Amino acid sequence: QVQLVESGGGLVQVGGSLGLSCAVSGRTFSIYGMGWFRQTPGKEREFVAAITWSGLSTYYADSVKGRFTISRDNAKNTAYLQMNSLKPEDTAVYYCAAGYRGRGTPAQAKPSEYDYWGQGTQVTVSS
User: Fold this and answer.
1) Which of 79, 97, 100, 104 has its CA 20 to 30 Å from the CA of residue 2?
2) 105 by DSSP, 3-state: which?
3) Per residue in 6-38, pLDDT tens?
4) What's the rounded mean pLDDT across residues 42-63?
5) Which of 40, 47, 52 is nearest to 63 (CA)?
6) Rounded-to-integer distance, Cα 90 and Cα 95, Å
7) What angle do CA 66, 104, 114 make, to 5 degrees?
8) Please, which pLDDT band fits residue 102 given cuts at 50, 70 and 90?
9) How far apart are the C-alpha atoms of 18 and 70, rounded to whole Å?
């Protein structure tokens, strides 16, 4: 069984930065594509960013492009999301996810492409 644990959430002011981590255990981390999603009450889970198993390809939602950076360290079994220039609309619970669809699979934006999910970490951006 694969387990994902997010950390690094918290309260930050508008324009500030925050870094999230997602530690993965249970199986070989390096084969999984990783994604970050976020959700606010009453809304569907929203794609934020994704990265392939190799780390060579990334994909971002338009709303975070140029402000957020996804990365991974396969030696540490950890994925990251660096968030800069934060806005109030970035406030949400952030989830990391892992999925395996083959090594040739591009970075995925659909929640259905992921098999395992973390418990989420709250990010609050205050104005």
Assistant:
1) 104
2) coil
3) 999 999 999 999 999 999 998 788 889 999 999
4) 96
5) 47
6) 13
7) 70
8) confident
9) 12
C-alpha 25/C-alpha 58 separation (Å) is: 22
Q: Which residues contact 115 (CB under 8 A, 6 or more apart)?
A: 2, 97, 98, 99, 100
Percentage of residues in the chain having pLDDT higher than 90: 87
- Amino acid letter, 44: E
> Could you give the CA distance from residue 31 to residue 11 in angstroms, rounded to a whole number?
33
Give CA–CA dist 9/21, Å, rounded: 9
d(CA 72, CA 95): 15
pLDDT digits (tens, 9 = 90+) for 58-77: 999 999 999 999 999 999 99
| Four-CA torsion 55, 44, 92, 107, nearest 10 degrees | 10
Tokens encoding 92: 């949400």
Q: Residue 1: which pLDDT band, with cuts at 50, 70 and 90?
A: confident
Structure token digits, residue 88: 């109030």
- The amino acid that residue 72 corresponds to is R
